Amino acid sequence: MKFKRLIILASLCLPMGAVQAQADDNDDFGVWTEISVKKELTQTLDLGFEGEIRTGNNSSTIDRLSGGIALSYKPSKYFKFGASYIFYGDYSAEKESKHAYFEDGELASYRLTPGYWKPNHRFYVEGTATKKFWKWLRISVRERYQFNHEAETSIDRTEFEREEYFTPNGVERGDWESYNVPKINECQSQQRLRTRVKFEYDKKGVDWGPFVSVELYNGINDKMHLQKIRTGVGTEYKINKQHKVGMAYLYSCHLNEAPNEHKHALNISYGFDF
Fold first, then answer.
1. Is the sign of the CA dihedral 241, 76, 41, 36 positive or negative?
2. Is residue 87 pLDDT above 90, yes or no?
3. Domain layout of the chain by residue ranges
4. What's domain 2-273's superfamily in CATH?
């Protein structure tokens, strides 16, 4: 019993410790909150709905809102197949760019891009193989094909500038003037193959399920180059047959960006099955 308690305690403490460590790395941190509902249609077929809110910028802004539907088929205890559709919006925060300065260092012009939402459509097709060892360790391997389509968006950016005048009394600078610079972000699509391996403590009669996982994101459009690695550690708790809650720490390293971007997230989830 002491060993079980140590596993549970470690799975709860690791996310908190990782979040604290993140504060020293100047990486981004967010909270991902998920709610899912699953309906058993038959003994082998399930229909699910999910919604998610993600924060970013050190959890100061909402970065993503999403909702989706999923269908899963489990022909045996070893294999499971599924397909899903998710619609989500990613928020791009307001930012200044293209700064120009006068010789004395005072600002002469800049561009302001307002915050806007980027709508996305995402499709999944996946297969999962699961095997249990020693009556307490469950190991699963999931292969997921992901197709993502980002819709076209139109943005009205604003250019601010002021001129410098040479007069008999010296140099003078005019008032700020502004004009709009429209921009269209064309639609784009991306395909990925995501491979996840998960180790989970799963023993009969125990409501807690600590786990660790690692997932590799390979870009199909990018000659199968490794684009991202996501690792996770956390636990789930089964309140009863219908309700369960979970908490996990997720760390994502984006390898296709320069410099490599590191994201830390505290994932909180609730699931209802009926």
1. positive
2. yes
3. 2-273
4. monomeric porin ompg (2.40.160.40)
**169 within 8 A of 201, measured Cβ to Cβ:** no
pLDDT at 26 over 70: no
Amino acid at site 99: H
Residue 205: what pLDDT? 87
pLDDT at res. 174: 87
167-218 confidence digits (pLDDT tens)? 887 788 889 999 999 989 999 999 999 999 999 999 988 999 999 999 999 9
Structural contact between residues 48 and 69, judged by C-beta atoms closer than 8 angstroms: yes
pTM for the full model?
Answer: 0.81
**What CA–CA distance (Å, rounded) separates 216 from 227?**
8
Q: Whole-angstrom distance between the N-terminal and C-terminal Cα of the chain?
A: 31
**Angle at CA of residue 65, ends 59 and 67, nearest 5°:** 140
**DSSP label of 58:** T
